[in-house]
Amino acid sequence: MKRYEQTWDLEPIFSGGSSSEALRRWMDAIETDMEKLGGDIGRLGPTPDSAWKGAVLALQKTNAALNEAANFAECLEAQDTADAGATRLTGLLDGLRAKLKTLEVRLETFFLGADDEAWEAFLGEEEIAPVAFTLRNRRDLASKKMEPEREILVGELAKDGYHAWGRLYDKLAGSLRADFDGKEGAKSLSMGQLHNRMESPDRAVRRRAFEKLEEAWGSVADLAAMALNNQAGFRLTTYAQRRWDSVLFEPLRLNRMKRETLDAMWSVVAERSGRLVPYLDEKARLMGSEKITWYDKSAPVAMEEKSYSYDEAAAYILDQFDRFSPSLVDFARMAFEKRWIEVEDRSGKAAGGFCTDFPVSGATRIFMTFGGTFGGVSTLAHELGHAHHTWVLREKPLWATDYPMTLAESASTFCETLILDAALAGASSDEERLTLLDKKLDEASTMMMNLRCRFLFETSFFDERASGPLTVAALNELMLSAQREAYRGALDDGAYHPLFWASKLHFYITGYPFYNFPYVFGFLFSNGLYDRALKEGSAFASKYEALLADTGVMTCEDLARKHLGVDLTRPEFWEASVDRAIAHVDDFVELARKKR
User: Fold this and answer.
1) Which string of DSSP letters, residue by residue, matches 162-223?
2) What number of other Cβ atoms are within 10 A of residue 304's Cβ?
3) Can you give the C-alpha Rg of the chain in angstroms?
4) Among 53, 244, 508, 574, which is most buried by a count of CB atoms within 10 Å?
5) Are 340 and 365 in contact (CB under 8 A)?
6) Across the 596 residues of the chain, what is the mean pLDDT of every consecutive 10-residue run?
7) What integer pLDDT is reported at residue 302 of this predicted model?
8) Residue 158 contacts by C-beta under 8 Å, 6 or more apart in sequence?
9) Are the CB atoms for 358 and 72 separated by under 8 Å?
10) Where are the beta strands (DSSP E) in 500-554?
11) For residue 78, what are the CA distances in angstroms to 171, 197, 224, 404?
């Protein structure tokens, strides 16, 4: 079996880590380019011409360069939360992004002033046409914002306000530790490591890990509440000045989807997610209780669940990817061999996982902590799905690769499904089949219950926050109410997670508000894609990549209409997807009862 390194290699991007001289020169060049671009924009005429084209292409190029540097700094902070140099770099790069945002707003002013006929002719020019979709969207959104000077001020204030609260939370979460007694003795664990302990087959270990998690976040809940309240206050004030009448206006625009699509999806989930309750109830009984607890809901149903080394996980993923698409497996193999993946289980790493891209060098990097479970294998496949999506788009201009989170999560979830269904098809015993059915239904309950509770919480939080900051107690109560509704009464009354609003990073991501419903969209949309793959066989691989290639230049609705022939604003597609996601509930219940 081939062996792969468990730490990534960032040196090919910028050598020297947070002290990189190459990065410093890169950032200096960005500043120089922005100064020139500012002068060029100041000399633009009112009618689209070659100077306009030069400014648009220069702005796109500078955006790519800044993304290259900012994503590198993100990787540095994730691999070592104590890297003060990386934290400083992030602050400096946020400053550069604020300056670039100012240039974007100034250029968009010219977009707004252009005659419609001249504007459309400009978008048809050879070098501009590939990014016409993005430019058209930017012009439309600019028309719904404040006057440019005020938008520029908002961007400047966000650097040391809105985004700074996000950075504070990241630092808080990364530095938080809990003392934990396990088989290896007493250890100080990060929140990411503690979360991994909640996947233990030993219920006592899971319960201690959950209690330690609540205790740790309880010790800093007042600080997390400050960050959440102040971020929300900034957004609400900005939205009011723009006369946006809903906090969902921005997330829907970012995700390129209509409110009708969101409402259709959630209405079907709300109607049919109750069918998962028998699964959760039967799983609870396997765990020795009548109702499922927060720390049991994602626990393995077998005491001796199969463990995987990282190399075994890689081999398994490559084998299943190869069955679907040569392009997918070739990419994944390259990512393993070139050390584009960081999975080492060590203290000092950030919690969670992500995939980030480097648009100039054409590379990606994957970050996670691999715990040796099948869940870890699934997460690795998920992040490789993200990375492959970026790889498919690597030869397109930056603004033609800017796909929304909804569609990003479709690609990643599709790869997860490939792995899980392959394992389920190859199950050799009732015990193994039960374990894999649990994984499948746990994913469904996470998407249709856990993610729904996040959406319900965030919606109610913003409603309440309009009247002023919320206390820790009020935030806890909103979270409990959301969990009760989303889980349809399936959770044990004494084992909810009231501090979930504090422990979940997604509530604090300033670049993507409402970081929840895109996952549900991606999960259900990928079910539709997977159905096509099953029906069409190997011929679907090329169609799948054609769909991925269009994700940067189409809305969700147009993409689905073109490649799948479905209307996302109607319930029918979502009903079929939900039904497929929960199709194995009866199978799980039957096998679980045989085991008891």
Assistant:
1) HHHHHHHHHHHHHH-EEEEEETTEEEEEEHHHHHHHTT-S-HHHHHHHHHHHHHHHHHTHHH
2) 9
3) 24
4) 574
5) yes
6) 95 96 97 97 95 97 98 96 93 91 92 94 96 96 92 88 91 89 78 83 89 94 97 96 95 96 98 97 92 90 80 96 94 97 92 92 96 90 96 96 92 92 88 91 96 98 97 98 95 92 94 92 93 88 94 97 96 95 95 86
7) 74
8) 98, 234, 510
9) yes
10) none
11) 10, 20, 19, 23
189-192 long-range CB contacts below 8 Å, 24 or more apart? Answer: 189/347, 190/81, 190/347, 190/348, 190/349, 190/351, 191/216, 191/351, 191/503, 192/349, 192/350, 192/351, 192/352, 192/369
CB-based contact 455:481 (threshold 8 Å)? no
210 Cβ contact list (under 8 Å, min separation 6)? 198, 293, 294, 295, 495, 497
Core vs surface per residue 502-528: b (16+ CB within 10 A) or e: bbbbebbebeebbbbbbbbbbbbbbbb
Distances (CA, A) of 101 to 134, 151, 316: 15, 9, 43
CB 95 within 8 A of CB 164: no
Residue 354: name the closest of 371, 366, 340, 338 by CA: 366
Which phi and psi (to 5°) does residue 356 adopt?
-130, 150
The structure's pTM equals 0.88
Domains and CATH numbers, the chain: 17-160 (1.20.140)
272: number of CA atoms within 13 Å, CB side? 21
**Among the residues of 246-289, which ranges form H helices?**
249-254, 259-272, 277-286
Query: Cα–Cα distance between 270 and 455 in angstroms, integer?
Result: 12
3-state secondary structure (DSSP) of residue 515: coil
